[in-house]
Amino acid sequence: MACKVLFALAVWLLLATCDAGRQMPKLADKKLCADSECSHPILIARALQDYYPGDCRFIPIRQGQLVYVYALLKDRGNLFWAGSVQDSYYGQQEARIGHFPSSVVEETHPLMPANTE
């Protein structure tokens, strides 16, 4: 009986301190894209510095890496963009898709206008 009570208490403590199931805060209220599904890249950018993300919504970027930008998140300024990066050798790794701060990249090639919200 005591084992069952201790087990139930341990499970309750584990669940009470776990963040699983909680919704993360939104990064922005508006998103600018080239089309309604954000499936076409808006621009190509080059990373100015390494970026190591703090959570699963963001992607790691290495200095010099090309980033295909699909969306500009708009709130109070252009703080975050959404895009994808590929490893240096195209077939070596699948593209990673996620968000990153706009301050770690510079625009190199505009591709399409971002006007769809």
From TrEMBL:
InterPro entries per UniProt: MIA, SH3-like_dom_sf, SH3_domain
Keywords assigned by UniProt, alphabetized: SH3 domain, Signal
Keyword Signal carried by entry: yes
BP GO annotations: extracellular matrix organization
Ranges where the SH3 domain occurs: 40-110
Gene expressing this chain: mia
Lineage: Eukaryota, Metazoa, Chordata, Craniata, Vertebrata
Keyword Plastid included in the entry's annotation: no
Xref: Gene3D superfamilies: SH3 Domains
Leader peptide range in chain numbering: 1-20
Protein name: MIA SH3 domain containing
